[in-house]
Amino acid sequence: MGASRRRKILIFGAGNICLSFVGPIFDQAGYRDIFADTARHILQRLCDYNGYTLRLLSPDGGETRFTIHGNETVDATDEDALAQLLTDPTRLSAGLPRWTTREPIDRKVLSYRL
After folding, report:
1. What sections of 1-114 are H helices per DSSP?
2. Three-class secondary structure of residue 54 per DSSP
3. Which of 21, 26, 67, 102 is deepest in the core (most CB within 10 A)?
4. Closest to 51 measured CA to CA, from 67, 32, 74
């Protein structure tokens, strides 16, 4: 399935857990990841490199690397962009990172899917 035709998943958070665990699970399942976060520097790096590489270390000292390509990003403070993504029926949402408990997220944005 081509990258543009893949189902999309909106993942709230672009930190360690979402980039190393949540994103790869959905990528392996055939989704195109869209990361929403308030950390613009992380979002910019994902855009600059068109993805990211994971290193998996095994107990015997072995290492496996794989790259997640073609993800998208959205500023989590951009209500209009989030609302557009959340109303698109081909996209889903997953997880809420710790920053959502510290910073207000407009209820009307989240209510599109809740």
Report:
1. 16-17, 23-28, 40-49, 79-87, 99-102, 107-110
2. strand
3. 26
4. 67
Q: Domain of 106?
A: 3-110
Nearest CA-CA partner of 1 in 20, 28, 21: 28
What confidence score (pLDDT) does residue 43 get?
Answer: 94
Task: Please give the DSSP secondary-structure letter assigned to residue 22.
Answer: I
Query: Domain with 8 in it: what CATH number?
Result: 3.40.50.720
66 Rama class: left (phi>0) / alpha (psi -120 to 50) / beta? beta
Q: What total number of domains does the chain contain? A: 1
Specify the DSSP class assigned to residue 106.
-
pLDDT reading at 98 higher than 60: no
Distance of CA 46 to the CA centre of its chain: 10
* SS3 of residue 32 by DSSP: strand
Q: Which of 20, 22, 3, 25 is nearest to 12 (CA)?
A: 22
pTM: 0.75
Q: Is the Cβ–Cβ distance between 48 and 13 less than 8 Å?
A: no
Q: What does the radius of gyration of the chain's CA atoms come to, in whole angstroms?
A: 15
